Write a sequence for this structure.
């Protein structure tokens, strides 16, 4: 007879867990894992969608501030980085900044960096992970005219948790 942890004695062969008890425990763990994995995938996707919304808002606000400064003549309309319509010619202009209209002013910068697309390819530079629309492009255009950056959106055919395509955000 072997002593049990509680001090009781069991006949030989009756201590420990049976095969059925072990299988039941494993089945319970498998069910819990089957529930937890899709939930964690949904949490990761929701976090990426939140990041995408914030990144799009940040870039669009920077474009709007740039255009507003151009309208208020805080930026010189001369130069290769500003279109005739007063929008930046690429996303890099928002990071590099432009000299103000008055000589000696420090450059006006609108973004610290171009954010990475959470659904983009990390091996591609961040400013190339986004799809662009120009001021003269159609509002639903999927091709960029190349004159200026009026809007930015997420390229591709990804679909959000609410069923809307990311490219329509």
């Amino acid at each position: 007879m072997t002593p049990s942890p509680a001090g009781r004695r069991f006949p030989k062969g009756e201590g420990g867990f049976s095969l059925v008890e072990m299988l039941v425990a494993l089945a319970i763990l498998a069910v819990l894992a089957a529930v937890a994995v899709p939930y964690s995938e949904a949490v990761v996707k929701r976090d990426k969608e939140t990041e995408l919304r914030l990144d799009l808002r940040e870039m669009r606000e920077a474009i709007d501030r740039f255009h507003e400064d151009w309208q208020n003549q805080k930026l010189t309309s001369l130069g290769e980085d500003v279109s005739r319509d007063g929008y930046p010619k690429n996303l890099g202009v928002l990071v590099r900044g432009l000299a103000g209209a008055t000589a000696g002013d420090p450059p006006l910068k609108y973004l610290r960096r171009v954010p990475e697309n959470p659904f983009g390819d990390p091996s591609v530079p961040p400013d190339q992970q986004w799809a662009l629309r120009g001021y003269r492009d159609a509002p639903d255009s999927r091709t960029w005219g190349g004159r200026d950056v009026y809007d930015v959106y997420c390229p591709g055919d990804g679909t959000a948790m609410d069923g809307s395509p990311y490219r329509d955000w």
